[in-house]
């Protein structure tokens, strides 16, 4: 599976962005998808995940109520809608694909990673 993330950019606090991650190479519908982020000097952290069936989503407490993860199996694409952005959301955002069903909040459970897209939120 190859993952291509896009949609990052510079936005003011309170603004919105939508990230996209397009998967290619294998049957997308068999993979659970996640978004992680990494700020300078910090470890990569979990943001959100969705099961390939679309019936379950998971969020980090820091983004719950502001971010929404969704998927479109027909387009092999997973999205991360980010609203009410804060300066602390500034990071490189990565999408990832996992064959396993469990532990989707842990980076080590993912099998494939995209290249990352920069999100910068100004105050």
What attributes does this structure have?
four-stranded antiparallel beta sheet, globular, seven-stranded mixed beta sheet, 123 residues, mainly beta, 11 strands
In words, what does this structure look like?
By secondary structure, the chain is an all-beta fold. The chain has no helices and eleven strands. The strands form two sheets. Strands 2, 4, 5, 6, 9, 10 and 11 form a seven-stranded mixed sheet that branches. A four-stranded antiparallel sheet has the order 1-3-8-7, with no helix packed on it. β5 (45-50) and β6 form a beta hairpin.
Q: In percent, how much strand structure appears in the residues?
A: over 45%
Distance between the terminal alpha carbons, to the nearest Å? 37 Å
Q: Over the alpha carbons, how many angstroms does the gyration radius reach?
A: 13 Å
Average pLDDT rating:
93
Number of strands: 11
Question: What global shape is seen?
Answer: globular
Low-pLDDT sequence parts: none
